Amino acid sequence: MTAQTFDVLTVCTGNICRSRIAELVLAQRFVDVSEIRLRSAGTRAASGWLIPEEVREIAGHLGVDEIRTRRTRQVNEQSLGDADLILVMTREHRREVVELNPRIVRRTFTIRELASLAAVTRDVDIVREGAAATADRAARLRAAVGAAARRRSRRRSPSLAANDDVIDPFGGNRDVYSRSALQLAPAVEGVAALFQRALNLGEGE
């Protein structure tokens, strides 16, 4: 985490499916925004596993041109502390990473949770959080995260909390991958829309 960059860490279990797709799609969306840096990791990173073909297909449908092979990463206290925003795939992931580094609690969301909060976070809320027209882009993005975090207390009933999770497709059939993608894709788009709104503030768009 530096003042000049906005570092995003996406997290799932094995760092093979959900977190990789979220990382790659957001990186593709903001390839021209040098301040945004994307990484991904797993709470139990699966060493040696190849990226499933279904993941490559889903990423391709979401606009990712290429998935380069790399080793999976295990999430740790430092990688969490370095991130301005941690996007996890389930409430259980959120519990795990916050236990690992309690200081990140306010900037850690399930990806579906943040997309839901983004939909009710107004531009004026982002400005009130510090996204002045004179602020740099990284500062505006951090303000957007802060504004969304303030909306948590006004959210829907806990009985619907399961809607914040993205199911794990690994080891499942194509139907399971499709269900997971149908949960993940709109959430990624919701997060991307929040980022874009923050970027646009004060830039005359």
Helix content: 40-55%
Principal-axes geometry comes out as globular
List the uncertain runs: none
CATH topology call? Rossmann fold
Adjacency order of strands in the biggest sheet:
2-1-3-4
* Beta-strand content bin: 5-15%
The total strand number stands at 4
Instruction: Provide the CATH top-level class.
Output: Alpha Beta
The total tally of domains equals 1
What does this structure look like?
It is built from eight helices and four strands. The protein has 205 residues and is of the alpha/beta class. The protein has one domain (6-200): Rossmann fold (3-Layer(aba) Sandwich), CATH 3.40.50.2300. A four-stranded parallel sheet has the order 2-1-3-4, with helices on both faces. The radius of gyration is 16 Å and the shape is globular.
What's the helix and strand layout?
Layout: E1 6-12, H1 18-29, E2 36-42, H2 53-61, H3 77-81, E3 85-88, H4 91-100, E4 108-110, H5 111-119, H6 123-128, H7 137-150, H8 174-200
Parallel strand pairs: 1-2, 1-3, 3-4
Helix pairs in contact: 1-2, 1-8, 5-8, 7-8
Which key phrases capture this entry?
205 residues; alpha/beta; Rossmann fold; four-stranded parallel sheet; 45% helix
In short:
By secondary structure, this protein is of the alpha/beta class. The chain is built from eight helices and four strands; from the N terminus they run βαβααβαβαααα.
